[in-house]
Amino acid sequence: MPYQCGLDxxxxxxxxxxxxxxxxxLHERPRRFGATRRELPGISEKVLAQQLREMEADLIVHREVxxxxxxxxxxxxxxxxxxxxxxxxxxxxxxxxxRIRMLQELEESSLAG
Amino acid sequence: MPYQCGLDxxxxxxxxxxxxxxxxxLHERPRRFGATRRELPGISEKVLAQQLREMEADLIVHREVxxxxxxxxxxxxxxxxxxxxxxxxxxxxxxxxxRIRMLQELEESSLAG
Lengths: 113, 113
What we know:
2 copies of one chain form a homodimer.
Chain A: H1 6-11, H2 18-28, H3 33-38, H4 45-57, E1 61-66, E2 73-78, H5 80-88, H6 90-112
Antiparallel strand pairs in A: 1-2
Helix pairs in contact in A: 2-5
């Protein structure tokens, strides 16, 4: 865990394209595995299970098992650290949207050029 | 460039461990190649040149060539979009520092346990 700075420790947790989208899905409300998967078109069961395990180990996702039904139910939710990460990503998401608009404008002007 | 959301477009630009550190180094002030490299212990010339080229293509770094000396000087600086990205990463860096402290506390308590 030798991180050079806080950003190192953050980028390490959100590596890859799925974890940020999983954060978004679980931030809305706790979800079961299937419901989480439906929010992430294109993700396989194996990859989702792996990502959730990693996020749990990174202390940003909580896994709760409910035994009150014949078949135990498993629900995933964000920990406090996970919710804080979601909020900290807000400005970065806004910057990314500005970048998308800029790239679109460049594309349109090169087509019109 | 088909991004699902702003965060996709942002995480795509800061992939890998060096770009965030290059952003930090150039945010302080414009720097030449050698001076940039000295801020990044462990980076090779080849990798730094590649990262700078990608950041230039992503419109977050500007490369200026000065011809007023016998040997032209090349200087790298952040574009406005680059400075905005640096600022948007602030909250993420703060979150990462909180995570580092938390991991250290866990480590200390497990040693003391």
